[in-house]
Amino acid sequence: MLQSLARGALDLFLPRHCAVSGRPLLDDDTGPVAAEVLRQADVAGADYCKRCGAPQGAGVGVIRECLSCQDVRDGFGTKEIVAVGRYAGVLEDMCLALKFGGERNVAKPLAAWLVPLLHERGVAARIDAVTPVPLSALRVLQRGYNQADLIARALKLEKPLVNVLRRTRPTDRQAMLSLAQRKANVDGAFMVRNAALVEGKVFLLVDDVMTTGATFAEAARTLKRAGAKAVYGAIAARAALGSDR
Ligand SMILES: [Zn+2]
Q: Which residues pair with 17 in a beta bridge?
């Protein structure tokens, strides 16, 4: 609150700066990221993996499994995952600015890329509700927001946004853990707040970055155990295994 008040006060005197390149923003820049930076982003097109959302090389088309997800035997608890692109370059910088740089508005251009992909791939029409992967209460307190929730809100898909998931406990940072440890770390990490809002519904589960997908899968499976009919995923960036945040 104080931080955002201070930033608002600063904006009165100083020009706002691009969340990625740091150059002062001009009247032509519509969002928090400079136009020439947005143009450099590698956004997914017609070649992608349906299972994990990873973009594929030109001409590969739509595939059901890829090198990034073939080791995840049980999948992610989702029917399909839509990702803006790979966790690299401008997309990586934007995700970092959103998560660690306090740049809340970066959620908007990320969502603006997700929306057409969700429509083109028929996902937007199949879902009943949108829900973000929650953070622990402590993490929300430290950061002031949940970046997944900001992206989910910015989607504006004309479907209800419901925060139905809750963390049951804080989990260790996944980056330090092996694959097996990551799975154990997130086992039972979520619970459903209100089962009546979940039963029989098709959800779009939203997160910023997905790496092993252990957290994402646990959140999706928690929804399904509570009676969700199906879960689709929407993520800003798909990180390769071994480059966890
Ligand atoms: Zn894949």
A: 24
Ligand 1: centre distance to CA 50 (Å):
7
Task: Report residue 185 as tokens.
Answer: 């770390």
Record the pTM: 0.90
Q: Which helix (H) or strand (E) holds 214?
A: helix 214-225
Domain range 43-238, CATH class:
alpha beta
Ion ligand 1 — residues with CB < 5 Å: 49, 51-52, 54, 66, 68-69
| Nearest residue to 177 via CA among 242, 92, 96 | 242
3-state SS assignment for residue 152: helix
> Which helix H or strand E contains 232, and what residues bound it?
strand 230-238
How many Å apart are CA 71 and CA 51, to the nearest integer? 12
236 Cβ contact list (under 8 Å, min separation 6): 83, 84, 91, 94, 95, 98, 110, 114, 151, 207, 208, 209
Per-domain boundaries in the chain? 1-40, 43-238
Q: What confidence tens digit (pLDDT) does each residue in 68-116 have? A: 999 888 899 999 999 999 999 999 999 999 999 999 999 999 999 999 9
* Interval between CA 158 and ligand 1 midpoint (Å): 28
Q: Which residues, given as ranges, of the chain have pLDDT below 50?
A: 243-245
Give the integer Cα–Cα distance in Å for 221 and 132: 14
